[in-house]
Design a protein that fits this description.
The structure holds 2 protein chains of 2 kinds. Helices cover about 10% and strands about 40% of the residues of chain A. Chain A is mostly beta strands. The model of chain A is unreliable at about 1-20 (pLDDT under 50). Chain B is mainly beta. Chain B has an 8-stranded antiparallel sheet, with no helix packed on it. In chain B, strands 1, 3, 4, 6, 9 and 11 form a 6-stranded antiparallel sheet that branches. In chain B, strands 23, 24, 25, 27, 30 and 32 form a 6-stranded antiparallel sheet that branches. Classes of the chains: A mainly beta, B mainly beta. Chain B: InterPro entries: Galactose-bd-like_sf, Invasin/intimin_cell_adhesion.
Chain lengths: ~280, ~450
């Protein structure tokens, strides 16, 4: 009910054209090559998205490698498109041995690209245990297991830090708690009460991170060298694919507590990819 | 320009608002019509009081024990600038009063707080005590839009306290800038000092995710008859702060909109008082700024409903001796505790325990009643064979004593959730007369140790 109301309020703002101006102006790659604006209600477009299902056991990584608590499904109560938004909803329910359900969408095998500008407009849930993300994985993870295949996290958030989002990279020599990245903190605003634009511009020798109109971080091969005393390797020169998910619990956010509100939904207005 | 009195001005404002609503599509007001607006000054105390009344601090009534001596400012301690508010919390035996508390009032007709979302200040203590309450919206007249935050833990270093405003649009003219009260419950009667600085309203932009609740967030049944009234209690609202922490405040009824699904059965006024007007069923719900509150009141009004209440929020309870007699041979600990702004009964180490109402109070005659209603929440896992026996004892201590027992099986209880029972009195095996019931026992023989009890009453169906 609450989510619906917030959502309606957002729509109203759109119509009235007086929403906060969070269009970004720092990006320079402007040739649109792929997008989903989530314009058709129902199941997400299967030519663009596929689902990861389960608790990771089948994939050989129970808890998806992070002791996460959710079971991913493709049921409409966990993932659907409505009124121009992709909705990923995390629920508290007993399901196939897990206590929570959610969804994880990927473009693996459907859209993969090296370099470019990857951008999405997202509103996240709130509360301890929520771990929403918009990120990229190298398309060779099957043959060259993580972290060797590389991960570019465009947006991650933990629900008990509603004013902070963070961007980072993982690769050989810099992964998990030793990934390389940075927090972006809003002043007088939060990530769960309105939409924000999260993006990167990725070129052979840098990844630039921005939120709304603000560039807040650049990661280069030299940074990886310095941060890892020469042990890390820049693995970001091959096609990567896109992932959108809401995880519950796990090593990073810790488990939900008795104040955490379920169900809650991550809303995605669009995902767009550009080339230079 | 004519100066209106405070009351007239507000009346005219209300009329004006109505006019706007009806005529906004017609044409604009002429330039000569100007609405009065009140000061939007945010500051209450920086290094000095800001635009407060001359007395600065208006104490609670000394006749009820309020100590007027312990309030002042301190030029040696400040979070910022040169001065802070210093409050000395007295010991219970202090001849000047056993607790300290009062309000700060705006010097003028009130302030327009619609542009803010919280009252904030910095606080530190001489020790890590807990102060009872801080808040705003109290003017010692109507206290219409009062808000309270209870049990503020002090640190010996400064920390910021944020009290969300439930619905800023209501506060077009508020005089009650600040309220506090504290005794020494948390320090076992040892007096202590706390300091407050940089007290002001702010628009933080990070106070979000409003979740109002009434009646402790529960769906409460209210069997009743025409003409009865009941006031909706336990009005609260939880916000999530920018730090990610949930902050729950107590809120007066005027922040809520109440709605009855059938006003012919019962209607609610703006103070949350429900008046039962006809027979039938109706559901009373509430909301703040369009957000539906958790919890509702289900009014069941009939010709013949009668109630004898042992322990409820909705009905006048009978007097009892105690909620735990600590009898010889009994291990059960516990009794009344606070929860969600109300009281419940919580027992630990339960083997057997009774609510007693026969020693210094009169036992009750429930001959005309037909059912016992009770809510039980087991606070542990439930194993096969677990049970709670409920036993009623009539004519305690007399030769004609009779008692009856009803067994609730563990399978009918749910861990950590309230389960409501309606048990016919005819199911209390062994109970004869019930004209002088004096004890209500809970017996688990240790199969269930931790349990909360609420909403105990007898009804005639």
């Amino acid at each position: 009910m609450w989510g619906y109301k917030m959502f309606f309020a957002s729509l109203l703002l759109l119509v009235m054209g007086c929403e906060t101006d969070d269009t970004q102006t720092v990006a320079t790659f402007n040739t649109l090559v792929w997008e989903d604006n989530f314009e058709v209600d129902g199941t997400p477009d299967s030519s663009r998205w596929r689902f990861d299902i389960g608790d990771g056991t089948e994939q050989g990584i129970p808890g998806w490698g992070n002791d996460e608590l959710q079971y991913y499904t493709d049921r409409s109560e966990n993932v659907t498109v409505q009124n121009g938004f992709l909705l990923i909803t995390a629920k508290q329910e007993d399901f196939n041995g897990s206590s929570f359900t959610s969804a994880r969408l990927t473009t693996q095998g459907l859209f993969e690209q090296a370099y470019g500008r990857f951008e999405a407009r997202i509103r996240v849930p709130f509360g301890k245990g929520y771990w929403p993300a918009f990120f990229l994985l190298g398309n060779n993870c099957n043959d060259n297991p993580w972290p060797a295949c590389g991960e570019i996290d465009i947006m991650e958030n933990v629900g008990d830090e509603p004013t902070i989002a963070f961007g980072s990279v993982h690769g050989p020599g810099f992964f998990g708690g030793d990934s390389i990245g940075k927090d972006y903190e809003l002043t007088n605003d939060r990530f769960d009460t309105g939409f924000h634009i999260f993006g990167i511009e990725w070129a052979p020798d840098y990844i630039n991170y921005y939120v709304d109109g603000n560039l807040y971080q650049q990661i280069t091969p030299e940074d990886i060298d310095e941060e890892t005393d020469g042990q890390g390797e820049w693995v970001f020169d091959r096609p990567f694919y896109i992932i959108l998910n809401v995880a519950i619990g796990g090593n990073l956010p810790g488990p939900p507590n008795n104040e955490t509100v379920f169900p809650q939904t991550m809303l995605v207005d669009y995902v767009r990819v550009y080339q230079q | 320009m004519k100066i209106y009195t405070y009351t007239n001005l507000r009346f005219i404002l209300l009329l004006g608002l109505g006019f706007v609503a009806f005529s906004s599509c017609e044409r604009d007001f002429s330039d000569e019509v100007k609405f009065a607006t009140f000061s939007a000054n945010a500051d209450i105390f920086t290094d000095t009081p800001v635009s407060l009344t001359d007395e600065f601090f208006v104490s609670f009534d000394p006749a009820i024990g309020a100590n007027t001596e312990g309030f002042g400012t301190d030029d040696d301690i400040a979070f910022e600038g040169s001065s802070s508010i210093r409050i000395d919390v007295p010991a219970p035996d202090d001849p000047n009063g056993s607790f300290i508390g009062g309000i700060f009032l705006d010097r003028g007709a009130g302030r327009d707080l619609t542009g803010f979302d919280a009252l904030t200040f910095y606080i530190k203590g001489s020790t890590t005590a807990t102060i009872d309450e801080v808040g705003f919206g109290s003017d010692f007249e109507e206290d219409k839009f009062a808000v309270g935050l209870q049990n503020i833990r002090l640190s010996t270093d400064w920390k910021k306290v944020i009290i969300p405003i439930p619905d800023p649009s209501k506060l077009v003219q508020e005089r009650g800038m600040f309220r506090f009260s504290s005794g020494t419950l948390s320090t076992n009667g040892v007096g202590f000092t706390f300091w407050i600085d940089e007290l002001r309203f702010e628009n933080l932009g990070t106070v979000a995710q409003s979740r109002p609740s009434i009646l402790g967030g529960n769906d409460s049944r209210f069997p009743t008859t025409v003409g009865q009234t009941v006031t909706i209690s336990q009005l609260q609202q939880t916000f999530n702060l920018g730090s990610g922490i949930d902050q729950t405040i107590s809120v007066t009824p005027s922040y809520f909109s109440f709605e009855s699904s059938d006003p012919n059965v019962a209607f609610v006024d703006e103070l949350g008082e429900v008046t039962v007007a006809g027979t039938g069923l109706t559901e009373i719900t509430a909301s703040i700024a369009g957000v539906l509150a958790e919890g509702k009141l289900l009014v069941e009004s009939s010709e013949s409903a009668q109630i004898v209440s042992i322990f409820t929020d909705l009905f006048a309870d009978i007097p009892v001796d105690n909620y735990n007699g600590f009898f010889l041979g009994q291990n059960t600990k516990g009794g009344l505790v606070e929860e969600s702004g109300g009281q419940i009964i919580r027992y630990t180490e339960l083997d057997f325990v009774s609510i007693n109402f026969f020693q210094n109070v009169a036992p009750i005659d429930i001959t005309e009643m037909t059912d016992l209603r009770i809510s039980i929440r087991v606070e542990e896992s439930i194993d096969p064979g677990d049970f709670i026996n409920i036993q009623l004892v009539n004519s305690v201590g007399n030769p004609d004593l009779t008692s009856g027992t009803f067994r609730i099986e563990g399978g009918d209880l749910v861990p950590n959730e309230w389960v409501e029972f309606q048990i016919p009195l005819s199911s209390f095996t062994g109970l004869g007369a019930r004209n002088a019931i004096g004890q209500l026992f809970f017996v688990s023989d240790g199969t269930i140790s931790n349990v909360s009890i609420d909403n105990i009453f007898f009804s005639a169906e």
